[in-house]
Amino acid sequence: MSQDNCILRELNLKDKNIHFTDNEAGEWNYFDYRGRGDKRHKCLIYTANLTYSVSRCSDCGFRDCVEHWGWTSTEMRLTGTSLWDVRLALRKQRFHCKNCGNTFTAASSDFKKNCQISRNTKVIVKQNLNEDMMTEKL
Ligand SMILES: [Zn+2]
Predict the structure, then answer these.
(1) N or C, where is the chain less crowded by C-beta within 10 Å?
(2) Which residues line ion ligand 1, judged by CB < 5 Å?
(3) What's the pTM?
(4) PANTHER family attached here (predicted)?
(5) CA-CA distance, 37 to 101, in Å (whole number)?
(6) Can you count the helices (H) and strands (E) in the chain?
(7) In this prediction, what percent of the chain has a pLDDT beyond 90?
(8) C-alpha 66 – ligand 1 centre gap (Å)
(9) Which residues, in sequence order, are bridge partners of residue 18?
């Protein structure tokens, strides 16, 4: 758990429901390549699971009828303390309501729904754009 806190801080994330996983070599991150042709570049990849307990269905509101229903995977773009393009290979918990049949995916305060760029990354990009605009005006 303390490892999670250290990595969350390093990646500028806050959601305690993100649990990082290491690979067979015991590494918490690894390098891999993304993109094609001229856009192919080296990335630093972290892997994690996003999961938590749900007591109520988000659709019908019934209690104690939600069960775990597999996982869905996505790759999020992050800003970290390194110079690399930092990515988070995130497995998100799926849930199923036994009462109404609704299925839904775990959500994180660090990422907007259906968006693969972290909220903090967006803030940093906006700040850099504002600084560039201020520099041009001078
Ligand atoms: Zn339901």
Answers:
(1) C
(2) 57, 59-60, 97, 99-100, 102
(3) 0.81
(4) TRANSPOSASE FOR INSERTION SEQUENCE ELEMENT IS1557
(5) 44
(6) 2, 6
(7) 57
(8) 7
(9) 50
Give the pLDDT score at 31: 94
Q: How far apart are CA 113 and CA 115, in angstroms?
A: 5
How many Å lie between the centroid of ligand 1 and the Cα of residue 61?
6
**What is the C-alpha separation between 108 and 78, in angstroms, rounded?**
14
29 alpha carbon to ligand 1 midpoint, in Å? Answer: 37
The pLDDT tens digits for 65-108 are 999 999 999 999 887 666 788 999 999 999 999 999 999 999 99
Give the rounded distance of the alpha carbon of 111 from its chain centre. 6
How many angstroms is it from 126 CA to the middle of ligand 1?
A: 39
Average pLDDT, whole number, for the chain?
88
